Structures are given as structure tokens and as C-alpha cells.
Automatic annotation (TrEMBL):
Listed Pfam families: Trm112p (PF03966)
Family: Belongs to the TRM112 family.
SUPFAM superfamilies named among the record's database cross-references: Trm112p-like
Quaternary organization: Interacts with TRM9.
GO MF entries: protein heterodimerization activity
UniProt name for this protein: Trm112p-domain-containing protein
Organism encoding this protein: Botryobasidium botryosum (strain FD-172 SS1)
Highest taxon above the source species: Eukaryota
Length: 125
């Protein structure tokens, strides 16, 4: 399923697309919010892996403005912040639509919550 925790790790890998290929832009998406188990320790451990600016801009494009522009320093996260981060990373699901590379405009379709990240043979590096 496409959640923002997954999306924040994806970049375009089409042949010749090596710069400005992250983050993939969502287009014509259908979203679904699904409750997920809250685990603040997991979130704190995962935070160093997040590309923060990409996460915040993507969340805002999808209509969620709960995250601050700057990521809190480790150890200073409030419970309110961790709940907002949990919601954005774990509970927003992209069910339908596409992700588009900002560089080469390659389109990765999303159907039934599953992104098709496969490339045709001529698109592979």
C-alpha cells in the first residue's frame, strides 16, 4: 500500500533519470484514512530516515498541514507532534492515482493501493 512512510523512500529509477527524481509527485489520487497502531518509539527511531522537507510538502499537497516545517531535534518531540507524524506516515493511504517523476515525468500508477514501480526493459538503466 502506498503510505507516506513508503513514498518518502521512493525515487524514480528510469533510465537516465538520476537527478531531481525525488520526491515523486502524486496526481489524481484517491485517499483513505485508516487507523493504525500508534508506536511512538518506532516513530522516534524512524525519524532520522525521513527526508523531512519532502514529507511535509507531500503531506500538504494531500491536504494535511499538521506537521511543522522544521523537524524537532531528537529528544524534543512532543506527544502532539508524534501523533501528527504517526497520522501522516501510517494512516494516510493512497488507494488510486499515480506518482510522477519531477525530472523525466515517468508515471507510476497506483491501483488498489499498490504502486506499479516496474519499468519496461527500455526504461531500465
Amino acid at each position: 500500500m502506498v503510505r507516506l512512510i513508503t513514498h518518502n523512500l521512493l525515487a524514480c529509477h528510469a533510465k537516465g533519470c538520476t537527478t531531481n527524481n525525488f520526491p515523486l509527485a502524486f496526481r489524481d489520487v484517491q485517499l483513505e484514512n485508516r487507523e493504525a497502531e500508534y508506536n511512538p518509539e518506532f516513530l522516534k527511531g524512524f525519524m532520522p530516515k525521513i527526508e523531512w522537507n519532502a514529507l511535509v510538502s507531500t503531506a500538504r499537497e494531500l491536504g494535511d498541514v499538521s506537521l511543522p516545517a522544521e523537524c524537532p531535534e531528537p529528544g524534543t518531540e512532543t506527544d502532539e507532534f508524534l501523533h501528527a507524524l504517526h497520522h501522516v506516515l501510517m494512516e494516510i493511504h493512497v488507494e488510486e492515482g499515480s506518482m510522477v517523476c519531477p525530472n523525466c515525468q515517468h508515471v507510476y500508477r497506483i491501483s488498489n493501493g499498490i504502486p506499479n514501480m516496474l519499468l519496461a526493459e527500455h526504461e531500465i538503466k
